[in-house]
Amino acid sequence: MKDLSMHIMDIVQNSVRAKADTVKLLISIDKDWLCIRVEDNGTGMDSETLEKVVDPFYTSRTTRKVGLGIPLIKQNAELTDGEMQLESEVGAGTILTAKFGINHIDRPPMGDIASTAAMMITGNDGVNLIFVVKKGEEEFGISTNEVKEVLGDVDVRMPKVTSFLKEMIEENIRELNIEFD
Amino acid sequence: MSKVKSLADLRNMRDELQAKVSLREKSDNPEKMVQVKVSMATCGIASGAKEVMNHMIEEMDRQAIDAIVTQTGCMGYCYAEPTIEVTLPNNNPVVFGHVDNKKAEEIIEKYIIRGELVDGIIPVNYETVNENKNE
Known about the structure:
The complex is a heterodimer of chains A (181) and B (135). Chain A is 37% helix and 26% strand. Chain A is an alpha+beta fold. Chain A has a single domain (4-175), classed as Heat Shock Protein 90, CATH 3.30.565.10. In chain A, β5 and β6 form a beta hairpin. In chain B, α4 (49-62) crosses α5. In chain B, 39% of the residues lie in helices and 16% in strands. Chain B is an alpha+beta fold and 135 residues long. Chains A and B meet through α1, α4, α5 and α6 of A and α1, α2, α3, α4 and β2 of B.
């Protein structure tokens, strides 16, 4: 994946596929580390599956023989002297935390996180995506449920809504003086 | 300093959208709107599906096309990613493969707006992604 926002989209899609109806995405900057945390309330994994998912040749899908999402983010994190951790409980959900050396030369750029977040907030039917960006004590957050509450009977999946959210997220991240790259 | 967008601005936008009669009717019947599903599995994301979805959203917003755009998982056409499934009102869904920004614009202009078929259709059994058991 050429940037971190692609990894984020991929991992969140794992949560959606695991039948999560709530996915919390936290992107935080803490001194020299950029942390990405995806927490869901999906089906979860047993300990045996948890060990296997870091293997690129393991997948639960039937359409192909590889499962690259988790191995790729793990590899990218470790290349930057960081790490990836996975916690999961069957019936409760999964938490993936990936830590990247923010100034490491091999850290991929963040990419367009605003449009990625907007598309995830509006584009996953039945999922409340809670998006939070944090740097020190400053934070900005928005969720699918908040947007739906404001929109009332207007469909959240409409392009105009996604475009608006993209701009809103961009502006609020800039307002907090958060620069990922 | 320019004002930063907030949920209050979104509320104002909702009021504008609700004022449009055709949208109010269609929001009660989403099957009357164009539905676009973008495959967003690892293969699709690595092939550019995220950029394609973003581009389609911007284009359809710019052209004020009544549509619902969502993401979906792997449709099983990893060799042809990025893939999108487009369902026009009262039509069966159609899957397009190898969709880049230029192809996306063509699909919008020709298929979505004018109903003309476009090259790059992947023959399927007219099952939507939701019905597809390949997951």
